[in-house]
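Board notes, transcribed. Complex of a protein with zinc ion.
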Amino acid sequence: LIYNILNLLQMLDLIIKNAKVCTSSDVFVCDIGVQNKEIVLLEKNINQKSKEILDADGKYVLPGGIDGHCHLDQPMKDGSVIADNFESGTKSAAFGGTTTVIPFAVQYKGDNLRKVIQDYHKKAEGQCYIDYAFHTIISDVSNKILHQELPAIIKDGYSHFKIYMTYDDLKLNDREILDVLSIAGKEKAVVMVHAENHECIMWLTEKLESEGKISPKYHAVSRPDIIEAEATNRAISLSRLTKTPVLFVHISSKEAIEAIRNAQTKGFKILAETCPQYLFLTKDKLDQKDFEGAKYVCSPPPRTKEDQIEVWKGIQNGTFDVFSSDHCPFFYEGKKGKDVKGKNASFSKIPNGCPGLETRLPLLFSDGVMNKKISINKFVEITSAKPAKIYGLYPRKGTIAIGSDADLVIWETGINKTIKNKDLHHNVDYTPYENIKVSAWPKTVICRGNIIVNDGKLNISKGFGEFQKSGISEYVY
Ligand code: URP
Ligand code: ZN
Ligand code: ZN
């Protein structure tokens, strides 16, 4: 009781009045009281004194977005340079309503995992505008890595990592995947899988190139839906064999979605992610004059209208657990980006990836929630709550509850805004979503009780963002 009275007498740091609070399960109207970076009160008409008061004026207030898939300052092997570092990437994310990002610390073959993580910490420290955790990418599966380094880092707060079934520098074969999965199962780590059949891609690429078919549109031809579905089915089998859950990242097409849905229906622990490029882009974007199509080269590639419909269904029916950006930005111009090997080089030499940190949430809110394709609870679930649960950050992140970090976004809805690259804050010379109209955008973004963006203005300095250790996932048991 005394504790409660003392608490009541204490000055709050921030009150958000008249909030239409949305979590992944509820919508309710109340005030939000924040003290010491955390939410301490959720009630009507908070009367306590506060250093700062914001009136949400009945607007939706959602948990800050968590982008569980982005590439920042990641070293490339082909001479290209990822356009965003931690400073520009996290700034851009903040303006789009994201308060935590989870980029990848990539291990190339021969790299010591601990060193890889230390290097990423050095890149991120003092640079971030929002909070961050790390996934690792495991490409070297030597005994030492699997039996010593990997278990150690999982315990230390890096409990999720990605493996690749394609890309020469990164890919693992089935035997190696089985070894990784059995360790991950034992250590309770989340294994994210990039599912595309490497041999099929190589075979198709060589065939296309030998026929002189090298323009950007052939990127999509070299990576058809069949090869995504094959790898997805295969990885499901490997997951079943080792009784270890997997999370399929950036799923793009009908057949792969069906494979995942079937496996989930049978009770296998299969999780899945999709991304804006599979809802808002189609493969004909790659078929443009000159090199323009390179802007849309990502893997898997954007698909067809029919696939887009299936991706929406997969979000609606719960096949997809998370919606991430897969922000992997390269300059269109400049010799270090999409044209690193020249604008006349084959599609197979174009760095893979598109920017999307800032536009992820407004696109989904506008076309999903505002156009009534998904509920606002589903929006919170796949953009914040479930990424937090899957990546061991919940309930510190991902919800609006007493004791959670005050990561909050006040949304402006019913607006008429056109996405223009010149208005975005990433360090890229284009957005694949140029000229798409949106009807919602974050008005105020709050991270750990601090207003970081308000009405299009940045309110904090770089270095505000803090590293967040990941606990063990709620989805690995
Ligand atoms: O094309 C893409 N998605 N590039 C990023 C790397 C990856 O596989 O996620
Ligand atoms: Zn990938
Ligand atoms: Zn990616």
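Residues 225-242 form the longest helix (18 residues). The chain has a mean pLDDT of 97.
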